[in-house]
């Protein structure tokens, strides 16, 4: 894992920037990019649509101004409903072009629900799964035409949420996986086992740690994903119950050479004072990941 320290990126959600309705206060993008660099990150994802410049040339120039590069972007798409998929195609195509032109190699696909937010689980029936896989192939082709690989992101409150959903995707498609350690854990999967099961098909990693007790409350329906996030479900890397070291060891042994993106979900109610806010936890997480690289 000698070069792991050079492959640690960030995502705006670590600073509370999420595009779902009512998520919380969105920090100024200049401050977020500057703090990413200050805590030792060398690259970023683009965040929700319109947070960073959407013009490809402007995007690349903007992040380069903070000595960062673009390594991917979370692109939500409803795959299990044809009408919703068709309506979202212009955004998928535009995001693919922007990511490619900015130098990214991966489109991180969020197989989103048709519902707002992340608090309601859905279960697809067989017909919806059939539609899902047809539209997944169409999206993969769009990404490929733009020089991108697709990394499907299992995510709480989306169509691919639980372990059995991930297993179905692996068995029924050839799509690569964005392995999000936190969302897999919340969905009841062991991220280390998924890393093994998806050997050769992990093209991007989102690093999250999780407080197991709060994750269980989300799984059982005792609390919502949003409330658990507010209650501290995502601590700095190394302070939770996810075996991050085990995941990274499996991936590195399998030859993974992509990015580890620090992507701790955060929700803010106001702009943090200077010297305070998400950067404190982000810096601690970067130190933990570098300790693994050096260990």
Fold and architecture overview:
The protein is of the alpha/beta class. It has one domain (4-294): TIM Barrel (Alpha-Beta Barrel), CATH 3.20.20.150. The chain has eleven helices and eight strands. An eight-stranded parallel sheet has the order 1-8-7-6-5-4-3-2. Strand 2, helix 2 and strand 3 form a beta-alpha-beta unit. Helix 7 (191-197) packs parallel to helix 10 (244-253). The chain starts with 7 loop residues before the first strand and ends with a helix.
SS elements, strand count: 8
Task: List the secondary-structure elements in sequence, H or E.
Answer: EHEHEHEHEHEHHEHHHEH
CATH class: Alpha Beta
How many H/I helices? 11
- Summarize the amount of helix as a percent range: 40-55%
Helix/strand layout:
Blueprint: E1 8-10, H1 29-38, E2 43-45, H2 56-64, E3 69-77, H3 82-101, E4 106-111, H4 126-145, E5 149-152, H5 163-172, E6 176-180, H6 181-186, H7 191-197, E7 202-207, H8 212-220, H9 225-230, H10 244-253, E8 260-262, H11 278-294
Parallel strand pairs: 1-8, 2-3, 3-4, 4-5, 5-6, 6-7, 7-8
Helix pairs in contact: 2-3, 3-4, 7-10
Keywords:
single chain; 295 residues; TIM Barrel; eight-stranded parallel sheet; 8 strands; 13% strand
């Amino acid at each position: 894992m000698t070069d792991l320290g050079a492959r640690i990126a960030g995502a705006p959600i670590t600073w509370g920037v999420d595009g779902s309705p009512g998520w919380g206060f969105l920090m100024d993008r200049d401050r977020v990019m500057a703090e990413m660099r200050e805590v030792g990150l060398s690259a970023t994802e683009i965040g929700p649509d319109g947070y960073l410049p959407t013009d490809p040339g402007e995007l690349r120039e903007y992040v380069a101004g903070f000595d960062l590069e673009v390594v991917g972007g979370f692109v939500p798409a409803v795959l299990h409903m044809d009408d919703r998929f068709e309506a979202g195609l212009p955004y998928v195509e535009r995001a693919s072009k922007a990511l490619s032109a900015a130098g990214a190699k991966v489109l991180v696909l969020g197989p989103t629900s048709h519902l707002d937010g992340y608090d309601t689980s859905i279960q697809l029936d067989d017909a919806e799964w059939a539609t899902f896989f047809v539209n997944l192939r169409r999206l993969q082709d769009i990404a490929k035409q733009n020089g991108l690989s697709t990394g499907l992101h299992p995510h709480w409150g989306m169509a691919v949420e639980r372990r059995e959903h991930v297993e179905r995707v692996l068995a029924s498609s050839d799509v690569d996986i964005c392995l999000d350690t936190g969302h897999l854990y919340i969905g009841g999967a062991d991220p280390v086992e998924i890393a093994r099961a998806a050997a050769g098909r992990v093209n991007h990693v989102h690093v999250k740690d999780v407080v197991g007790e709060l994750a269980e409350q989300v799984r059982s329906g005792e609390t919502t994903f949003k409330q658990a996030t507010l209650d501290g479900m995502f601590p700095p890397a190394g302070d939770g119950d996810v075996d991050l070291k085990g995941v990274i060891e499996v991936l590195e042994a399998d030859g993974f050479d992509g990015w580890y993106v620090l992507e701790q979900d955060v929700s803010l109610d106001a702009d943090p004072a200077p010297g305070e806010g998400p950067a404190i936890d982000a810096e601690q997480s970067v130190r933990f990941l570098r300790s693994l690289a050096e260990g």
